[in-house]
Amino acid sequence: MNAIEQFLYDVLAGINSLVGNYGVSIIIFTILMRMLIMPFDYKSRKGMRKMALIQPKINELQKKYGKDQQKLQQKQAELMKKEGYNPLSGCLPLLLTWPIMFAMFAAMRGIANEQMAMQTFRYLAGETNIVSAADRFLWVKNIWMADSLFASIAPNAQALSMIPANMWQRAYETLSEGQVQAIAQSIAAVSETTLDFSTADTVKTSITTMLTALGQMPGYVEAVATVPGWANVNFFVFSITLYKQYNGLLILPVLAGVSQILQYKFNPAMTESQQTQQNSQSNGMNTFMKYFFPILSVFWCLTSNAGFAVYWVTSTIAMWVQSVIITKILEKKDAQKAQSVSGEGSIK
After folding, report:
1. 261 CB neighbour count, 10 Å cutoff
2. How do residues 108-128 score in pLDDT, each as one tens digit?
3. Is 74 inside a domain boundary?
């Protein structure tokens, strides 16, 4: 992790140490991050709003000088200078937030990886309280697995293979001496090798060894047991497995899709974007994204852990609320500006 990722990782871990639940912690963490980047969103929305206001004038210029591109560009530049509009003001502020967002995703992924590694070690140690209260969230039994009827409550082979070596090592170093001894006994029962998380190759070998040992742990076997006749069932282009101890009820993925639909329909930022691109070729792409993005959101939340789904739903709702607030502020400023101009009399 770089410095920013580590800082955000510590922030999320610190919030959890106070509230004692990662689901609630992710909600608080997401809201704090949205507040952090709100000034950038404000700048972007201000630019989009300005562009929406001058778009009719640009359309007139395009009709008048459409056959002379050089003249058109000159007139557009003059118009934007007169209106005090910077073409980069709509997108540049948001681009500046990308490093923060990427660092935030990395921090949440780091927490998820470390907690899944810890749960794996608890299974290998023969413990009974594998999933702590901090790992549960409402109807979701394990927030580090997907909110789905088709996901087990225990980390599976695919999830474990995605955990990097440094997270395995970090989790291993937090174990007590008794846990380390119990894990060593479980590993010794199936292999003469010891766990090594120093390189990608040794991690791969260690995961194979751990999966073999987990196959002999009653708690883990019970956690990943499938409903008879429902293992790898082909369903159209998908293959699904129904677990006896399923992890969730598919509520978060559905909420992700619904919230995206509602955001697109009621978000003032979306309306301004449509006004800006009115009568442009990109309207077809906007219509496509209107229906495609909610479906993509559902897919992401189905194939990611429930912690990411909690973030996605919270972020979508927070963005809508933030957009409404920014719109109210801009409308108030526009009204004050119009009233000021009206009070000065007509302008020649």
Report:
1. 15
2. 999 999 999 999 999 999 888
3. yes
Range of the domain at 289: 3-335
Domain membership of residue 346 (yes or no) is no
Calpha distance 134→115 (Å, rounded): 10
CA 246 distance to own-chain centroid: 23
111: its two tokens: 């927490």
- Asked if 11 and 111 count as a contact pair (C-beta separation under 8 A), the reply is no
Kindly indicate the confidence band of residue 348, based on its pLDDT and cuts at 50, 70 and 90.
very low
How far apart CA 307 and CA 136 sit, in angstroms, is 10
Half-sphere exposure (CA, 13 Å, Cβ side) for 263? Answer: 25
> Where on the phi/psi map is residue 196: left (φ > 0), alpha (ψ -120 to 50), or beta?
beta
The per-residue pLDDT for range 15-66, each reduced to its tens digit, is 999 999 999 999 999 999 988 888 888 877 777 777 777 777 777 777 777 6
Domain count, the chain: 1
- On whether residue 235 sits in a domain, the answer given is yes
State the Cα angle at 132 between 206 and 28, rounded to 5°.
105
* Vertex 212: Cα angle to 222 and 137 (nearest 5): 40
Residue with tokens 């293959």: 239
Nearest to residue 291, comparing CAs of 265, 271, 273?
265
This prediction's pTM: 0.81
